[in-house]
Amino acid sequence: MSNTEKPDLEHEALQSLPNGVLLSWGKVKQPKRGPKGELSIPQIVEAAVKIADRDGLAAVSMNRVAQSLGFTTMSLYRYITSKEDLLVLMQDAVCAVEPPAERPESQWREEMKDYVWLSLQMIRKHPWYVDVPITGVPVTPNNLLFVDWGIRTMRNLELNDYEKISFVLLLSGYARHYGILLRDMDRAIGNGATEDSFSGRGYTEALKHLVRQEDYPNLYPMVQSGVYTEEGGEPNPIGDDLEFGLNRILDGIEMYVESKKGK
Asked: What is the dihedral angle through the alpha carbons of 130, 131, 134, 138, rounded to the nearest 10 degrees?
């Protein structure tokens, strides 16, 4: 294959990617018209992220981003041609997170926890992230680095590639679920709610009258004991729900890995 054929094949392959993805990889030619250094894609994306962090995803528009930068909307369209492309770039930008140093081989569980905790921190820092619809597998550079890190946690486990990707999806899904829950709690508390309102503390007595055994035979004893609203007399033996659930996921992965040994 000649050197001239290789770029042609690459160009042809890249055309299957959405425009926003091509922008994230720097595969779209930038405009040369206008004053040098007038604007840049990173500037536009940074401004959009600031608006979304402060006022939510619904507040992001090409017009508002342009105004925040002191330019016309048409100026932005010379760099990013649609809001959909802008959302792709925003998501990729906030995924530019430096993973912690690799742990020893024996600490793969702790490394998976690092992956989940950092995913949660990213969602809480940028609450709008989970409001952007999922349209397919990650294909932008920083998002793929996050996936690469997830795979790194299993580098010494006897798993095939399909199993590794499936476990990354499992861990990411758990982080996303709890990220949405914590995001909503953060918002509610910011608007004056209390942490007790999420656990149901203070509702115990009312629920004891409303939840009847004949209607809710399985839930009824938990309401009566106060466990459902975290006002039970006995101490909670499992600790934090998030940590408890994650440990059970890791137990399952560990058991699966052990079951494959010797096969």
From this structure: -50
